[in-house]
Design goal:
Length: 354
């Protein structure tokens, strides 16, 4: 074993030449949940190189298990066959001994093949499994973190989901909070999701109901929604979407008393930061393996709705037209979960009004 796990402190790995590549070009949240696998692999082989999307790269480039991050803009500058071939050639020049493929796509498999690495390890249920030299049975249940770790043969204890912040990341978040006069005990809200049906429509009502400062987090694409949510809490609602980079946003979430989020990437950022979570699930279910992991975390969901879950990601529009999985989750139920996790209460009139 070549790594030293501190008790929540820094982890160091010995500095062998990089022999191992991980290709993970899935969504942001998936990349965050891959960090325990990266730590396990670094423990065995030394720090790894990772191919990931430009959006996710900042989450990995400071991680102690990562030697270097190779950006692959699969929907932009590197799209299509030409991009795959170009990157494949680059990877071949690095002469990796092995490639791990947690993302079960043909694109990742093609990059693995083109890298020329003699060992290619991925999941047996991948459509591209025929291209792997070692196929690992993907567990049918359990959290995604442990499922991904099976690629490394399992790891006990499970390394933490981790984002390594720099002093600048923390300073940027603290400066933003100072500038807006937000002290401790605020509630972070993440109302966005790229999947329409995963967005709980109650964030405006929740922001109005809570007796605490609320800070809305997310990307630039969430800006309009975030403004409406922040405006519902006059004098104590703030919109931080697009104000900080990804690690700065993680640092901000790290300062919150609790994060209220849909089943989307901020949930996993909070897991990495150790911030308690109230996670709202609609068309998807925690049993898919992407739920919160903390002892204090709460899940709010419509447990008895027979149409749940209706798809792996959550469709853009409810196929039944009613979206009851989300519209029937009351502000009161989410506010009660916030109070249980953080002690932040809601106004009595609103709390009893749903
Ligand atoms: S079909 Fe059911 S689970 Fe799917 S979006 Fe509609 S209400 Fe939600």
């Amino acid at each position: 074993m070549s790594c030293v796990h501190g008790n929540g402190g820094p982890t160091t790995y010995d500095l062998r030449p990089t022999t191992t590549l991980v290709i993970q070009t899935a969504f942001l949240g998936d990349v965050v949940l891959t960090t325990p696998l990266l730590a396990a692999l670094a423990g065995r082989h030394g720090p790894v190189d990772v191919v990931t999307t430009p959006a996710a790269a900042p989450l990995l480039e400071t991680h102690p298990a990562v030697a270097s991050v190779i950006r692959y803009d699969k929907r932009g500058a590197d799209r299509g066959l030409a991009g795959i071939v170009r990157l494949g050639r680059r990877l071949r020049g690095r002469r990796y001994a092995r490639v791990y493929l947690p993302h079960r796509s043909w694109r990742s498999a093609a990059l693995g093949l083109l890298s020329g690495a003699p060992e290619r390890i991925g999941f047996a249920d991948s459509p591209a499994a025929v291209t792997y030299t070692r196929r690992v049975l993907r567990p049918g249940a359990g959290h995604e973190v442990e499922r991904l770790l099976t690629l490394a043969g399992g790891e006990t204890p499970t390394p933490p989901v981790r984002i390594e912040l720099t002093a600048d990341d923390r300073a940027a978040a603290d400066a933003w909070l100072r500038e807006h006069g937000v002290g401790g005990g605020f509630v972070a809200l993440a109302p966005g999701s790229i999947w329409g049906t995963k967005r709980w429509p109650g964030y405006v009502g929740l922001a109005a109901a809570l007796d605490a400062p609320v800070v809305v987090v997310g990307g630039r694409e969430d800006m309009l929604l975030a403004e409406a949510v922040a405006a519902a809490a006059p004098g104590r609602g703030y919109n931080a979407t697009g104000a900080l980079g990804l690690r700065g946003s993680a640092a901000l979430i790290g300062r919150a008393a609790v994060l209220v989020t849909n089943d989307s990437a901020p949930l996993h950022l909070a897991t990495a930061m150790g911030t308690p979570v109230v996670a709202i699930f609609g068309p998807t279910v925690p049993a898919f393996g992407f739920g919160p992991r903390g002892a204090r975390d709460r899940i709010v969901e419509h447990a008895d709705l027979p149409c749940r879950p209706c798809s792996a990601h959550g469709p853009q529009v409810c196929p039944l037209g009613h979206h009851r999985c989300m519209t029937e989750l009351s502000v009161a139920s989410v506010a009660a979960a916030v109070a249980a996790v953080s002690g932040v209460e809601a106004h009595r009139a609103i709390r009893t009004g749903h």
